[in-house]
Design goal:
Oligomer: homotrimer
Largest sheet of chain A: 11 strands, parallel
Number of strands of chain A: 40
Shape of chain A: flat
Number of helices of chain A: 5
Helix content of chain A: 10-25%
Largest interface: A-B, 85 and 86 residues
């Protein structure tokens, strides 16, 4: 952000990432930009056709795009089959993660029985409790808590204000964004005469490798066995994962969704924002759920599933939703009309016209 | 979690918890397990009939179940009227809360005017502000903040990264899970010519005894008077409680629900996940609300209330939701048809068939 | 909260805030109260007509109200055109924000390269990272993190457990409530053969002046350019703002709403609770969205928009929602019936009655 870099020759990038280059291989790019606001020294990309019109005036030093868009490009082009993937790879080279110095800051608080690898970094204000393990290259940010006997895998990052509760296991190369919580107690209560009785939650949370957990996302520990998040799963902000849930590898979930207890979600699913899963369901692999859907039954067939109504102007919406409250009556009326019309038709020796449905 | 315990004889458990025992009273159990994965030395339970088929092969040393299921049990049985409640009680004996050493950690920061009971524990990184009170046996976990003049009642637990704002009152035996916030300012603004004018929020939050507040849950302080959460109320993760809300004793609310300002909810209500209450409502005792419902009016009759549509395949859902946008038109068409049919019927001296509704 | 104040003469308040006073100008008020529970020495207000009946018995020393309500007031009246705005101004005088002593607490941790104004306050447990700037009169509460090169503007308040990530910019007089997160990485992944590839998020979050951010609210940094929140924007608790979002000045958003990436919202919009915006939309100025709406398309006309169904008793709701699953079939049946009736009508030389729609 702001630091001027000498940049990398786009000829080198083309070679490294297998792109066809049209233009000057010695042009250099130092940071990324949008097509609309790019200037000299920047790299832009085109993946969404909606932005194609910006290509003709783009002032970037190079644009990553597909072959079909190359003709319209006003500047140097890096041609690739999947521009967004290639852009992600090049952007990671241009904007590498900030490294961190190994060692424990004097203002961190680490229990003497915790094992902290000498290459790990523990920031001021972090707390590492008894018996916890922090592996090589891990980063424990300010105000983070690693609970008793929890384990943070190699090169994982706890950004800031993160809580990892006791005994939980975090895989390798995991990122936990601010205010996320791993291993809070599951919501288990038995209804006794005197009120709600807490059921001990003795399972853990186990996160696989390469998992990302968004800001404010909470994942409850299992009631008896573990809550398990597979490898490569990406969870956006403010997601709630209930106890005993299992999520398969490479599933991705957008913000504000919630998964109730004991539901199992397959691999490579795509879950949009604000989706709610009720408990004890089985969702197979490769399911897509659109935004604000209530998933209230198991799914055993890959496909796309929905339940949210689209927005309307309030006046029309009110009329329609008032009708919804009497939809069952309406359907019964239609049934009656069908019979009446059929009976009239028969008495007139004619049949209702069943053709021409729109 | 790994620690091997000698276990407790199930004859003792039967006596202590009033169960009928079928089997060997000297069998010992040390920890809990699921019916499916139980082994020797474990205790399982059967409360949900769905899991009954697991009973025949269960390898637990004992299963808590009801009389009607006892015949199918392959191992020692602890028979009780309410297996889930009895399981909860026994599990609490097998898995007691981890105790804590009394005292203030050197890396905590306590204002000299705060009153902290000598039996309370204050963890590293915790901050106790001026005039706050922490009662006997309370636990203030790492990175927790107890604001000015706030009070944490006896044996209450602030797990980690919890904020209790100034002047709030936390009852006895309360648990506040990580990243929960008690006493943030209510959302009160008056629209002035120059923009939104903040209305001071001078009330408090008062939590009764035996309240649990989930991870990431936020409870706003009252605008003038207090926001009040009754005894034994259980709030799951990521719930939002607006200012001036009152929730009656023993009501339970599942994750991701929100209650807008000044709404009053009765006792013993069951609120499912992702439910939204608009403001200034009155909800009577013993109401159940199903998941994702928008509670947009007061409720004065106990019962079950809903408003979320169930999931469907996206293609069919799109067809139906497009029709919804013209539902009012459809209803008008049906009305017209009814009249037309009646008029035809009359002119034919016949009446439409009104019998045989499905 | 208990502290007895000598109070202010209401004659002074009337003069200062341009109210007409009916009653005793020497009556004094020290704190605010509700109409229902007010006593001597308190100031109440009437803005919602629902509470008008409380006026006759109100025991406050003064009530702020409009001219039309003055006749019914049992006590001294401060008459004004907009009682809620005037109440907000007076309440702010009666309940001023608690000041803070300038200086850095010994238990805070500030990088030596951070610039902290001598009038700012840094609380115990706060962490200020390298190159960060904290301006005059700012308050950095306990457990807050101000990341590398972030800037907190004059007189802004980070209450407690707040995270401001690296390079983000916070304007003047901003309040960040507990557990809020500014500048978490946006949710950007490219689908590669080996799994989801993280796209670096190199933009910032820029908050204007006089912005309030609620407890647990998260605002993601931009992917390439910045996420921008305009002046005077008020965000309630547990709101999620995706990367690249822009929100216009003086827009207000209620709790639990979410805005997906790259959506642009205009000025002075009113967004109710639990609303979800899909990504890449443009919402014009002065739009109102009602609770739980899914905003799934751009809006170019000011007005009120909705999509949530109102609550019903569960039994009736189940019947109606079952019918919804076949709504398209129902509409086709009605279409068929229309044709059949028209054809019968024609053959009888009569036309269906199209008058008298309700």
């Amino acid at each position: 952000m702001g630091a001027t870099r000498p940049g990398i020759a786009i000829g080198e990038l083309a070679a490294q990432f297998g792109c066809e280059l049209i233009g000057d291989p010695d042009a250099r790019v130092g940071h990324v930009a949008t097509l609309a606001n790019a200037g000299p020294g920047t790299l832009a990309f085109l993946a969404n056709p909606k932005y194609r019109p910006k290509l003709a005036q783009c002032a970037a030093s190079a644009v990553v795009l597909s072959a079909e868009d190359a003709a319209g490009c006003a500047t140097n082009a890096l041609i690739t089959d999947d521009p967004y993937v290639t852009y992600a790879r090049i952007a990671t080279v241009l904007h590498p993660s900030t490294g961190h110095a190994p060692g424990i800051h004097a203002a961190a608080s680490c229990d003497p029985t915790a094992e902290i690898h000498p290459t790990a970094h523990v920031a001021p204000g972090a707390v590492i409790e008894a018996g916890a393990e922090v592996c090589e290259g891990a980063f424990i940010g300010p105000q983070c808590v690693v609970g008793r006997h929890a384990r943070v895998g190699p090169h994982s990052v706890l950004t800031a204000n993160v809580t990892v509760a006791h005994h939980c296991e975090i895989g390798a190369r995991v990122t936990l964004h601010p205010a996320s919580v791993i291993g809070s107690d599951g919501f288990g209560y038995a209804r006794a005469a005197e009120g709600w009785l807490k059921v001990p939650q003795v399972g853990r949370v186990v996160l696989g490798d390469d998992v990302d957990v968004g800001a404010g996302t909470t994942i409850d520990r299992g009631a008896v066995e573990d809550t398990v998040i597979g490898h490569g799963v990406k969870l956006d902000n403010q997601i709630q994962i209930g106890h005993n849930v299992r999520i398969g590898d490479h599933t991705i979930v957008a913000a504000c969704s919630g998964v109730s207890g004991s539901t199992v979600i397959g691999k490579r699913c795509l879950v949009a924002g604000a989706v709610g899963f009720v408990g004890h369901l089985n969702i197979c692999d490769d399911v897509t759920v659109t935004g604000q859907t209530m998933v209230n039954r198991s799914i055993d067939k890959p496909g796309v599933y929905s339940s949210a109504l689209p927005m309307d102007e309030a006046a029309r919406w009110r009329r329609n939703s008032a009708r919804f409250r009497r939809l069952d009556d309406l359907a019964r009326t239609v049934k009656r009309l069908e019979k009446a019309v059929a009976s009239i038709g028969e008495s007139a020796a004619t049949t209702p016209d069943r053709e021409g449905d729109d």
